[in-house]
Specification:
This protein is an alpha/beta fold. The protein is 55% helix and 12% strand.
């Protein structure tokens, strides 16, 4: 017995401890349920309304005080007072959240019982009759599951969801109540396939929606978001909660804003993230669609927060096309192709020589040559075939162990004859000196790809006797040369990766003249995705399709950092336990395994390991023939398009009918997976196909043994294999699962242990024989753990990069939000002045007073506000404080002058023509630039003109932030690419990135503050004041960013992202303009709910 088993017996498993912790809450729910279920329909709704009222009373003191603070912030009070009020407001928001959580925990048993009773009533009754409220009447206009009959509202138990008519037939099991508790507590609930995750979510969603702060239900694709909102929505609406789905509405629309203001909002992970970015490109409060990120439940949480988390969401726009950069890929492609072909020829020769040496008994030399071939082209088919022969895999591993010892001191003996070296595990390609020489001779320049030694050459320039200006010119030329050659090397390396590590119809497909990435887990095409760092352009060049132009990033965030903004986050999936460490490390999310409603009786058989892929596929076909003859349906899991098409051809040759679901057939996914449980049906699909769709079995299929799962290869991640297994055995159904492996599989090649290869050799297995043992299956799982650890390390390192960006993003976006709302704009301005004064004094304190004053005048066009005597005596901190106060005085004086000049015009226009104009356009200039202000006429009049100064400050801050932030993002993209060269100097790229990005951000903030303050200190209104040419007011049009030119996309390889689903079209309920309004008012539709619409 292992140590872990002993500990488990003494203290219990984690699942046991988790269940013990929630058991008292479960008992409270079960105790209160009979009382709740005995209530009439109206009494049940009254109980939920009472809970909402109780929560509103909890929130009222906080909300009232926050509203008071907002009003006070709009008054003309000292900035120090505003800072105190702003801090108080921020604290109140946190205190309110804590008070809400405390109340929700107390209400949980009753709220869960109410939702369970609601589900029971809808299941057992075709219609549920209640006294109609205004909410019911409004609902009846747009939804056909509610009808109004006099004073009553009739809720029907059947409606359309996801394009299909459904009849409600579910009531929560006790284990689902446990899952609901876990989700409310902000945990991940791991529930097996078929356990009803969507139904479980109704419990915490209903409870948390009662607070009115908004609950977000996050799904992986728009089909599921629309289906689930329509499927579960009526249960929430029955209790007066509003429900909508953002994927039904266009971005930046009033309809989408309304969806976010609902109590419960469904949507895809991508759209939630993109809306956050769009909000942070808005220029007026009315353009914002999202509200506070309060509570979210993420469906298929492993897919969203693990697979997709490594990929940033990006909103980008077109930039000036640089044909030179794109031409580089086509320019160097012939040279790289020639290099690749030379390497193939060389590896073929080395492999033949290795065969000869090994046959002669010279295993040392043979092993070295075998390792050289493996380092040159690890995916070379003849090499993979040779390694499957007895003893070859072990020989390769022995040679690799020998040459890797002593920090790879002897490895150059193996790699120097190659043109480039591939590390398949790290996804890297490195050029050798021989490769550089071949490329250099091809272009006729020996130094064409040789990076200059910047450090030593810079030192030589510094120590030379050259004039200062010439030194600077030489340094600039050196950096220019380094940048140019770095770009060349980068282009060549990406082209080599494209040729050696990315296969057509495995990693990508060519459709409509475009390279489209195939999801490694699901086999779906990932529309709009592009590999980053020029890799996508390299693949496009390789395949001779159009090399797409570059775009500029305007806003970006990773899903990791987006979801960490929520006050409370929860998730549910069938496969999270294997990634529990990562969930806790990054998101502080605990994984709770929920027991199944019925015991799982699926037969999970040991892996069958064959020597070659050919033998493995033949065995799979024979097994399929046997299972279908028994009347059992078979689901065959594959990892790529190529394998699925190969198996399909083999089945056609045997005359076996089947369905194929891969990247080329993804549109029929839900339909194919739903039919996969029919007798003798064969379905070939990727390992994670059909998430969110259950495979239901008929009694005949259950009697025959249930669904048979056949995996044709182990995935890198155990949870993907568990997802495939979980397709069988739902709700106590019979079934089986078997994985067929070969020593040629990618996982076995990269991480398979010597033990497996050695056992194959000792047994002298024939090609059609299989190894089967529990220990071997565990060895394969250990190989998967190695991959998972490696992938976790990659994701964590990517997060380190994005965390740097996230701190900067939060600071900038907070300043933007303050500018848009206008509440804290004076606080931000004062902070800008303090920073500007501090930096100015720090840089210029050594100057004489006259020079100090001249420098200040040149930068900000203001005087110092103090004399030479004070300057000489004052400490640095005193100078900073005095300069800050003087800047504030100048700003107020300048704004007062503007208001004094403009208010009479505003007063006259409002009093005489106020009904004609909502906004008025006012030109403002600093003598260099001129902007047109759009000022609300009524607000400007009622505030005695102060609104003009506020609008000017707001617009200048927003304009300058957006301009500087876009430029900063471009510099950060360049920095992230350039710091990778730090590894050549034995430096950690992340450390260099953190240091350099801090300097870039500090420089950006300094320039931003300077540009904002400089404009405000010099602002004036260029009005014509001649009496014979009176200034006429102009109607202002608020300019918002043109989102039609923006692209929302993701720029790196992510997994399990889904394209827009092709769902059946549901025709909305249509009402004639002269028909009676469905709300029961007795009026015509055009005079009631259709007023202004028809």
């Amino acid at each position: 017995m292992s140590f872990a088993s002993v500990i488990g017996k003494v203290f219990g498993s984690k699942a046991d401890r988790d269940y013990k912790a929630v058991k008292p809450i479960l008992q409270k729910i079960l105790a209160v349920y009979p009382e709740i279920d005995a209530l009439s329909n109206d009494e049940l709704r009254a109980r939920s309304a009472a809970l909402r009222h109780k929560l509103s009373e909890v929130e009222a003191p906080f909300e009232n005080r926050i509203a008071q603070i907002k009003e006070e912030l709009n008054k003309d009070i000292p900035v120090s007072e505003k800072e105190k009020l702003a801090d108080e407001s921020d604290k109140l928001v946190k205190d309110e959240d804590e008070a809400i959580e405390k109340s929700l925990n107390e209400m949980l048993p009753e709220a869960f019982a109410i939702m369970k009773s609601t589900a029971r009533r809808f299941k057992e009754n075709e219609s549920v009759v209640v006294t109609a409220t205004q909410f019911d009447k409004d609902l009846s206009v747009s939804h056909d599951f509610v009808t109004i009959d006099g004073d009553n509202a009739i809720y029907h138990n059947h409606w359309v969801a996801g394009g299909n008519e459904i009849t409600w037939d579910m009531v929560h099991y006790d284990v689902q109540l446990i899952g609901g508790i876990a989700l409310h507590q902000g945990k991940i609930a791991e529930m097996a396939t078929g356990e009803g995750k969507t139904l479980v979510a109704t419990l915490p969603v209903f409870l948390n929606a009662l607070a009115g702060k908004g609950v977000h239900m996050v799904t992986v694709n728009d089909y599921l978001s629309k289906r689930d909102s329509e499927w579960m929505g009526p249960l929430y609406m029955f209790h007066g909660l509003s429900v909508d789905c953002i994927d039904k509405h266009q971005p930046n629309s009033d309809a989408r804003r309304k969806a976010y203001n609902c109590d419960i909002t469904f949507g895809t992970n991508n759209e939630f993230g993109f809306d956050y970015l769009r909000d942070n490109m808005a220029v007026v409060q009315e353009d914002l669609v999202q509200r506070k990120h309060h509570y979210a439940i993420v469906d298929e949480v492993d897919s969203v927060l693990i697979d997709d988390a490594r990929t940033p969401l990006i909103i980008s726009g077109p930039i000036q096309r640089n044909d030179a950069d794109e031409a580089q890929f086509m320019e160097f492609k012939p040279f790289v192709e020639k290099l690749y072909q030379a390497q193939r020829t060389l590896v073929n020769q080395v492999l033949n020589e290795a065969r000869k040496k090994i046959a002669e008994g010279d295993e040392n030399e043979g092993g070295k040559l075998l390792l050289r071939a493996h380092k040159g082209l690890p995916k070379y088919a003849p090499l993979i075939k040779f390694l499957s022969e007895p003893g070859m895999k072990v020989l390769l591993q022995k040679a690799e162990n020998y040459y890797m010892q002593d920090n790879e001191r002897e490895m150059p003996v193996v790699t120097d004859p190659l043109y480039f070296v591939i590390n398949e595990q790290l996804h890297s390609v490195d050029m050798t000196d021989k490769g550089h020489e071949v490329l250099a001779s091809a272009v006729g320049n020996d130094d064409f790809f040789v990076l200059p030694d910047v450090g030593s050459q810079t030192a030589e320039i510094e120590h030379s006797d050259l004039p200062l200006q010439e030194k600077q010119q030489k340094k600039d030329a050196l950096m220019s040369e380094f940048s140019l050659k770095s770009e060349r090397v980068h282009t060549v390396i990406q082209l080599l990766k494209a040729y050696t590590m990315f296969e057509k119809d495995v990693d990508y497909v060519i459709m409509d003249g475009q390279v489209k990435i195939v999801d490694e887990s699901t086999g779906r095409i990932m529309e709009g995705r592009r590999w980053s760092d020029g890799l996508h352009q390299a693949v496009e060049a390789k395949e001779n399709v159009k090399v797409e132009g570059a775009t500029q990033t305007f806003a970006t965030i990773t899903l990791q950092n987006y979801f960490r903004m929520y006050h409370k986050l929860a998730g549910m999936t069938g496969t999270a336990e294997t990634e529990a460490g990562e969930f806790w490390s990054i998101y502080k999310l605990d994984v709770m395994v929920i027991p199944t409603n019925r015991p799982v009786i699926r037969d999970d058989q040991n892996d069958l390991i064959y020597k070659t892929k050919k033998a493995k596929y033949n065995a799979v076909i024979e097994r399929i023939v046997k299972l279908t003859s028994e009347g059992r349906p078979v689901l065959v899991g594959t990892t790529d398009v190529e394998t699925s098409e190969l198996l399909s051809r083999m089945l056609r040759m045997r005359g076996i009918r089947h369905n194929v679901l891969n990247a080329k057939e993804h549109a029929r996914e839900a339909e194919i997976v739903a039919q996969a449980g029919q007798s003798s049906t064969v379905t070939i699909a990727t390992n994670m196909a059909g998430r969110g769709t259950d495979i239901k079995l008929s009694p005949e299929v259950k009697a025959a043994g249930g669904l048979a799962i056949i995996g044709t290869e182990r995935h890198d991640s155990r949870r993907v294999d568990r997802q495939l297994r979980g397709r069988a055995g739902r709700q106590g159904d019979p079934g089986s699962s078997t994985f067929y492996l070969s020593l040629e599989d990618k996982l076995m090649r990269l991480f398979g242990s010597e033990r497996i290869a050695g056992m194959v050799d000792r047994l002298g297995m024939a090609d059609d024989e299989a190894l089967e043992n529990n220990m071997l299956s565990k060895a394969v799982e250990n190989a998967q753990r190695k991959v998972e650890e490696n992938n976790f390390g990659i994701r964590k390192r990517l997060l380190e990069y994005d965390d740097v960006m996230n701190y900067q993003r939060e600071a900038i976006y907070a300043r933007r939000r303050n500018a848009i709302s206008g509440d804290k704009i004076e606080i931000d301005l004062r902070n800008m002045m303090l920073d500007a004064a501090t930096l100015f004094v720090e840089k210029n304190r050594h100057l004489p007073f006259e020079d100090f004053e001249v420098a200040l005048m040149a930068m900000y066009s203001i005087d110092t506000g103090f004399d030479a005597a004070f300057y000489e005596k004052a400490k640095r901190e005193e100078l900073e404080d005095r300069l800050t106060e003087h800047m504030m005085e100048v700003y107020k004086r300048r704004m007062d002058t503007l208001v004094e000049k403009l208010y009479p015009i505003v007063k006259e226009v409002y009093e005489k023509q106020g009904k004609l104009y909502q906004n008025i356009a006012i030109p403002v200039s600093d003598g260099i630039k001129q902007i047109g202000l759009s000022v609300n006429l009524e607000k400007a009049y009622n505030s005695d003109g102060r609104e003009i100064a506020k609008t000017l400050s707001k617009n200048i801050i927003l304009y300058q932030i957006d301009e500087h932030w876009k430029e900063h993002l471009r510099e950060m993209d360049d920095l992230k690419q350039s710091v990778q060269n730090a590894s050549y100097e034995q430096k950690d790229p992340v450390v260099v990135y953190k240091l350099e990005s801090y300097n870039l951000f500090a420089s950006m903030l300094e320039t931003l503050n300077k540009d904002v303050l400089s404009f405000l200190f010099k602002a004036y209104v260029p009005l014509r004041e001649t009496p014979d040419q009176p200034q006429r007011p102009q109607r202002a049009v608020q300019q918002s960013p043109d989102m039609s030119k923006m692209q929302a996309g993701r720029s790196d390889l992510a997994t399990n992202a889904e394209q827009k689903a092709r769902t059946p079209i549901k025709v909305d309920k249509t009402i004639g303009r002269n028909d009676p309004c469905p709300c029961g008012s007795g009026k015509k539709y055009k005079n009631c709910h259709g007023k202004g619409l028809v």
